[in-house]
Design a protein that fits this description.
Number of strands: 2
Distance between the termini: 50 Å
Strand order of the largest sheet: 1-2
Number of helices: 13
Structural class: mainly alpha
Helix content: 55-70%
Strand content: under 5%
Largest sheet: 2 strands, antiparallel
Radius of gyration: 22 Å
């Protein structure tokens, strides 16, 4: 395959073993990018965390990704603008894997496929079902409306109990709001749970990302009074994600992060120090 040949060339340029390069490159793709969809954030913290995952030196991981950016395995434009790792090929495979579901389309600011008129991955050019291509547009529209109506009826009839992950997230979000306003009115947990289900199942958001943003909006002085329901969170999810990312960059040195100590420990060991002498309290 062409990409394997390119990886072999890249390994020669870096002066490292091809298998080491494949381990890092494929792990980035399979474990961190495809797991989340079509991109992953990449900063110095991710370098150290990822180096621990693949049991390789941080310098090797950093060097591999830098070269992958240089040689086009990842988009340098997206990395420079948004600190993410993605590529046109990754996005193409993501859209093929998710089929015709329009709700899984790529965020416009990240979209490398539709940046020109030559979309290699427009799902209209592929056959995803056995229906005839001559099927009338009116019939498709009618079927879609019937399906959407059934989905809405099923949503109204759903009952979410306290074991449901959506119900648990609804309770978590209310808890975050109550931390700022103990007198905030208790919500309709069934409606909140259903809104969260749509956010995850229909919009394709991960539970981890949803929970993180629920916490973040209630830490932000402006958004804590503007985002007080899962519905509001859903409508502004991409905007809030970008804003939280920007806030993280501006305050990176002061932000509490449970991974900081792990990174500091790895640096301590790399400098030749005894791990038993590491100060976990400082």
């Amino acid at each position: 395959m062409k990409w394997i040949v390119n990886l072999n060339k890249l390994a020669n340029l870096l002066g490292i073993d091809t298998e080491e390069l494949k381990q890092v490159y494929l792990s980035v793709l399979l474990m961190d990018i495809y797991k989340k969809g079509y991109y992953c954030y990449w900063s110095e913290k991710e370098v150290y965390i990822f180096s621990m995952k693949v049991n390789e030196a941080a310098e090797l991981v950093r060097g591999v990704v830098d070269e992958c950016l240089k040689w086009g395995f990842f988009s340098k434009e997206m990395y420079d603008s948004y600190s993410i790792l993605t590529s046109k090929g990754i996005q193409s495979r993501y859209k093929l894997a998710t089929g015709r579901r329009k709700e899984t389309l790529i965020a416009p600011e990240y979209d490398l496929i539709n940046a020109d008129n030559n979309s290699v991955n427009d799902y209209k050019n592929y056959s995803f079902c056995s229906k005839s291509n001559t099927e009338s547009t009116q019939k498709k529209v009618k079927e879609k409306k019937v399906k959407e109506k059934k989905v809405k009826e099923n949503s109204r009839n759903r009952i979410y109990n306290n074991t449901s992950p959506y119900y648990k997230l609804a309770k978590y979000f209310y808890g975050q709001i109550k931390n700022n306003n103990p007198n905030h009115k208790e919500p309709n947990y069934q409606k909140w749970s259903n809104d969260i289900r749509l956010l995850i199942e229909k919009d394709g958001r991960s539970i981890e990302d949803v929970k993180y943003l629920m916490h973040w909006v209630q830490q932000d002085n402006f958004e804590m009074v503007n985002v007080l329901s899962p519905d509001k969170l859903r409508k502004r999810f991409d905007q809030l994600t970008m804003k939280s990312r920007s806030s993280y960059k501006n305050d990176e040195n002061n932000r509490d992060d449970p991974r900081d100590k792990e990174i500091a420990l790895q640096q301590w060991i790399a400098e030749g120090n005894n791990p038993e002498d590491f100060n976990w309290e400082s």
